[in-house]
C-alpha cells in the first residue's frame, strides 16, 4: 500500500474524501480550488524557481510505501516551501508539510522547517516537526490504512467545508442543500 502527502492532507480535512481519493473516485480535475491552487503556485514561484529543487522521496514504513513530491525545497537553507490558495483547511496543510519534513528525515536529509505561503492572503505559516508530531503521523498512517480498506465509505461531514469540496454534488445528491 502507498500513502502520499495528498492522503495525509485529505485525512485531516475529511476521512470520506480521503477514502474516495484512495479508492480511485477522483473528482479533483473538476475542482476550482485545485485549478486555482495551481495558478497561485505558478504566479508565486515562477520568477524564483531556480532557487528551489523539486524532490521525490519514498520510504518503506512497516510495509507501507510513503511517498512525497516536494515542489520547492530550498537545499541551501533546508526549508520546504508550500503554496496554498486559502487557509480554510490550514491544519491539513500543516500536516501535509509535517509529513514532508518527516519523509526527508526518514531519508536522512536534514531539514530546518517548512513554510506555507498564502500569497492571496499575504500570510505565511512556519511549520516544525517534533516527536509528538511524528507519533501523530505514525498513528495517522495506521488510521488511513484501516480507512482505505473499509468497504463502505465514511459518512458525510456536513460542515461548511463541504461547499468548496469537489465531491459536494456527489455527497449531497438528492439531499437538501446545507
Ligand atoms: S463534500 Fe464534505 S463529506 Fe463529502 S467528501 Fe467533501 S468534505 Fe467530505
> Rg from C-alpha positions?
17 Å
Oligomer: single chain
Helix content: 25-40%
Indicate the CATH architecture: Alpha-Beta Complex
Any idea of the CATH class? Alpha Beta
Major sheet characteristics: 6 strands, mixed
- Name the helix and strand elements from N-terminus to C-terminus, one letter apiece: EHHHEEEHEEHH
Beta-strand proportion = 15-25%
Q: Classify the fold: give the CATH topology.
A: Lambda Exonuclease, Chain A
Number of helices: 6
Q: List low-pLDDT spans.
A: none
First CA to last CA: what distance?
A: 35 Å
Taken together, the total number of domains comes to: 1
Q: Please give the number of β-strands.
A: 6
Q: What structural class results from the helix and strand content? A: alpha/beta
| Heterogens | iron/sulfur cluster
Arithmetic mean pLDDT: 86
Shape: globular
Amino acid at each position: 500500500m502507498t500513502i502520499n502527502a495528498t492522503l495525509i492532507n485529505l485525512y485531516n480535512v475529511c476521512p470520506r474524501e480521503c477514502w474516495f481519493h484512495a479508492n480511485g473516485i477522483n473528482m479533483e480535475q473538476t475542482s476550482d480550488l485545485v485549478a486555482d491552487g495551481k495558478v497561485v503556485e505558478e504566479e508565486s514561484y515562477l520568477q524564483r524557481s531556480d532557487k528551489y529543487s523539486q524532490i521525490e522521496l519514498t520510504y518503506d514504513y512497516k510495509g507501507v510505501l510513503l511517498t512525497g513530491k516536494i515542489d520547492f525545497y530550498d537545499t541551501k537553507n533546508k526549508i520546504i516551501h508550500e503554496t496554498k490558495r486559502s487557509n480554510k483547511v490550514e491544519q491539513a496543510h500543516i500536516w501535509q508539510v509535517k509529513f514532508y519534513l518527516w519523509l526527508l528525515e526518514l531519508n536522512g536529509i536534514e531539514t530546518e522547517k517548512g513554510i506555507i505561503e498564502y500569497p492571496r492572503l499575504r500570510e505565511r505559516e512556519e511549520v516544525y516537526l517534533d516527536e509528538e508530531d511524528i507519533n501523530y503521523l505514525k498513528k495517522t498512517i495506521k488510521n488511513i490504512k484501516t480507512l482505505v480498506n473499509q468497504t463502505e465509505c465514511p459518512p458525510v461531514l456536513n460542515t461548511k467545508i463541504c461547499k468548496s469540496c469537489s465531491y459536494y454534488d456527489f455527497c449531497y445528491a438528492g439531499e437538501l442543500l446545507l
